[in-house]
Amino acid sequence: MARILKFDDGSDLPLIEPEMWSGCKSDNAPSMKKLMVKNLSLLGKTGAVPGKGIRGGNPARGSRAAATRTPSLSARRVIIKARVVKMTNGDMKSVDLHLKYIKRDGVGIEGEEGRLFGENRDAFSESELSSHLHNEQHQFRFIVSPEDAYEIDLEKFTRDLMQQAQKDLGKQLIWGAVCHHNTDNPHVHIVVRGVDRDGEQLWIDREYISNGFRNRAREIVTKELGCRTEWEIEQSINNEIRQERFTSLDRQLTGRLEGGKELHFAHYDMNDPGRFQDARLMSRIEKLKEIGLVFDRGPRKFEFVNGWQEQLKIMGRRGDIIKTIHAEMGRNDTGRYHIFDPKNNTVDIEGNVARIGLVDELSDRKFCIIEKTNGDIHYLPEKAITKEIFSHISEGQIVRIRTEQSSWLKAADKNIADIARANGNIYSVKQHLKTLPAQHVRVKGRAVERRDYVESHQRRVQRLCRFGLAQDVDDGKFLVADNLEKELASRDKTHPNKNLKIEIISSMRLDEMVQYPGRTWLDFHTADLDATTLAKHGFGHQVNKFAHQRAEYVRELGIDPADPARAKKLDKIQAINLVGDEMVKAGYEYVHLESNSEFTGKVHPVVHVWKRKKYLIIDNARSKQFTIVPWQQDFESLLARKVQLSMDVNSRFKIKAMGLDLSR
């Protein structure tokens, strides 16, 4: 409750006096003067009355909650991660996916599916979280992880925490949660709707999300389990000394640095309590010296390298990734772990998609683990592999992921430069339209509307403005650098533009490849069944096992598994199996397309499928010949049309149909 303090001039000031439990050690209550100063400072900074909703761009936007005190050092510890998820036109798709993920099988205390619960134990319905709510622009997601979660009832703890949050915010929240017991640290996922039960938008003060919510959680756990003992506190701090990550000890060191990089410890008397804390910090510095982040600069003097805090944070993230790989793959051969860094690495990996998981359960960012036949394990986060790529791959596929450098100089840049040179370095949209008298422009064999074509150039020149190579001077007019093409070409060397490309080599499982009547990825390993490059565990061991079985099957087909021409012979068997007896009886002969060769024919109107592999059949009625190519989505428009098929030196198919040049 808030009471009103009246002043002599007739003004008043609301004083928030929440009922608070302040921790294990007794604290003196703040004086009336301190409360007045605190609330006046809040009014001066935000121009808002505590307890009221705040809108606009203010950093404290939201329902301001009661200012909770930081619990004492002896209070139990709780880690909380929070994220605000924006809703696009009330779209519930991302929310439904998140609910599905946090309820997934295996997260329960006995390995069962997670159970969604809410404030009302008996009447909670999942529709409270998955139904559309008018005016909902965002939702809140929390992961709450008490340090001693094994010793408490997580569901009861969550209900107590959310009940306290409702009191602090003065709102009736719509929320649901799932407890996870599938990790070393049991935790709870909480989803809070962006609209309260009165239908009003919910905005939570940033300070409450950052600190107040965690402090309330610490209070609840401490009331349940009691305060941490002095020995427990000492142990938790001492455990940080040897950690290769940023710790609370490092935060203390940062606050004591002189000039941002030097630290000098003073001498203490034997009875001075400060020497115990400094001794702990000195031990931490010894660890930092081991990993090259600190150097001696004299007796009790130390110099810290630039960016040492960020390096510790990177090491901490790397340690978390290594733990993830070990947990997912069940092996601890860290010498074979490779963590991809898009800023510094180039990569060319071929292997099995061993795992696809979440980097962060809060943000739903994914990671991919590729295992090679030699036992190397490559970890690629979503930061390196785009969501689009993740949508095309699945566990069990054989893929090749490699870094390719794309040129800064695009075809549109040459057109922009030509028009600018003819108009005093000014690119004009209107002038560009005048140079295109026809209604359509041919682009890679496709007819594109003239206006759409010019708009694509306008978007490109707007992007050039961000590179500092153009300047918007008027509506539809841009001043273009006179050396545009040369400047863009030079950036290929100074700022190489690298992207990850993925090629799905096979979607068939290894056991499916064993008796497939055609070429498979496994055939690359039947020629040398005793290859020493195959690992004796994991994916390499599986490849070796199924390659032996595949070799026996290939022999049954009358082909030597070590024959250099086995691929061509397997293609012929595959083609005959795909087209069936009718084409063979009609006298059609299979043609194996080789590098720098061509084949003209009509695309068969039926796509043949065998064990998740799709093919396109092209036949020539005049020569009584046919060939097959792996199916691509781009081929949809070619069905029943006459095409010219060719293969380049890199064994890539190219199809030209009725003047359209559709390349892959």
Overall SS class: alpha+beta
Q: Which geometry do the CA atoms define?
A: globular
Q: Which assembly state applies to the chains in this document?
A: single chain
Weakly predicted, low-confidence segments = 1-23, 25-61, 659-664
Q: Please count the helical segments.
A: 17
Largest β-sheet summary: 8 strands, mixed
Distance between the termini: 69 Å
Count of DSSP strands: 28
**Computed Rg:** 33 Å
Mean pLDDT: 81
- Share of helix among residues? 25-40%
In terms of DSSP E residues, the strand content is: 15-25%
Keywords:
single chain, 664 residues, alpha+beta, 8-stranded mixed beta sheet, 6-stranded mixed beta sheet, disordered N terminus, disordered C terminus
Structure notes:
By secondary structure, the protein is an alpha+beta fold. It is 32% helix and 24% strand. Strand 26 and strand 27 form a beta hairpin. The longest helix has 22 residues.
